[in-house]
Amino acid sequence: MTTARGRTGRPPLSEERKAAVRLEIARAAVGLFIAQGVAATTGEQIGQAVGVSSRTVWRYFPTKESCVRPLLSTGIEAIAAALRQWPPGRPLDEAFDGMWTADAGLAGPDVGALVRLTRTEPGLRAVWLQTHDEAEPAFARALAERGRLPADDVRPAIWAAMLNAALRAAVEHHAHHVDPGSDAARARADLTAALRTALAAAAAGIA
Hints:
Layout: H1 15-36, H2 43-50, H3 54-60, H4 69-84, H5 111-117, H6 122-147, H7 155-177, H8 184-203
């Protein structure tokens, strides 16, 4: 008579831990891309930077450029959550007060350097544009929920497009005009100022 054997090896990772690993990989990839360029960076190096194998890196991401997506996606989720909680009648800028200094927020570390790389790295540019394409429906759902608007109301989609374009323009303007030699605190302050300007411009057209 045989007995059933329990599962051996490492226990499966929780969804929360998987998300944390993806984010760790993303941050490591961005750091390496900035330091030595995309072409010179390998999956093995990215994995070593966070203590995982290259096999784990490729399990989560199809290409090394796509490794940066969790950082950008985290920003989308944070923005959508802020929009849902934005009180009617209050300035849009106030909805993002808690995000200006958060690493996962709008003004996170290395944003400018990463976006500058998208000018010369087609793979990163594709990820950047695709992320913004995915952001619009997320923002539209949040704005519709905030306003308790019906699914067939086109206004949330229009507002989301305005907000998305404003945020992208602000980040790209910052990335291409800030002094790359600026210290981290100054770069964050400059990016925050650009984002506040973008939010004010977008808010003028959002009810």
